[in-house]
């Protein structure tokens, strides 16, 4: 991890535009955490796969960023909106977010985005993500659990390190006890790093193993719909690999976490 710059910006405790507050935080590593933000009033409806924009005022101006919601719509009123976030080591939004105490007021707007599931889709769903790109897929599965409308799902999630595999325990439990018909396929891109000592699962980037996963699990192009979320290079590579394998372009849906060619910390921040 790159050491973040010291952030000395003055965060405004109160502001007329604030309409929500940080109600819970769980740290997973030094630069990965889950945050729950709840509206002061009634929750705003959203569809799993969409994102909300959260922010605070610092040095007299709003600093904000959009994040996919990892929780289902039904829990927003009681538990707030769940966001799985990586700390970006530049003076943008996340260096402010990491400084916020639980209870701090915030601004939240949304939802936006069209990265949503097709209704009544009986095809096998292949979800491919890296890092925090797994968040919208968690919202989708959790919503299906509430509604009792499960779909056969393969969850391929890649990270550099084992301790960065988000929601691993939850996904393994669903697969193990049959709570949801999901096949969880985690992969590590730096298997020789001491931080990954003892890892015996798949290794390699998502784009390098996705065809093996399709072959091993018998995923046929005409019977599978693919959703990809995360790093834009990964998304475009996975898309190309699958299309070369015979997947129709309209069977592949994608959500870029930032525009290709731009820094991860720059997406939609003001």
Describe the protein's architecture and organization.
The protein has helices at residues 76-79, 94-97, 135-147, 168-177, 206-216, 232-244, and strands spanning 20-29, 32-39, 51-58, 61-68, 81-86, 105-112, 124-130, 153-159, 182-188, 202-203, 224-230, 252-256. It is globular and about 55 Å long. The protein is of the alpha/beta class. Helices cover 20% and strands 31% of the residues. The protein starts with 19 loop residues before the first strand and ends in a 14-residue tail after the last strand. It has six helices and twelve strands. Residues 264-270 have low confidence and may be disordered.
Short description:
This protein is an alpha/beta fold. Helix content is 20%, strand content 31%. The chain has helices at residues 76-79, 94-97, 135-147, 168-177, 206-216, 232-244, and strands spanning 20-29, 32-39, 51-58, 61-68, 81-86, 105-112, 124-130, 153-159, 182-188, 202-203, 224-230, 252-256.
Category from helices, strands and their pairing:
alpha/beta
Radius of gyration: 19 Å
Helix-strand topology string: EEEEHEHEEHEHEEHEHE
Shape: globular
Strand content is 25-35%
The strand line-up of the biggest sheet is 4-3-6-1-2-5
Largest sheet: 6 strands, antiparallel
Q: What is the end-to-end distance?
A: 24 Å
What is the total tally of β strands? 12
In the predicted model, the low-confidence regions spanning at least 5 consecutive residues are 264-270
DSSP summary: helix tally: 6
The helicity comes to 10-25%
Mean pLDDT: 93
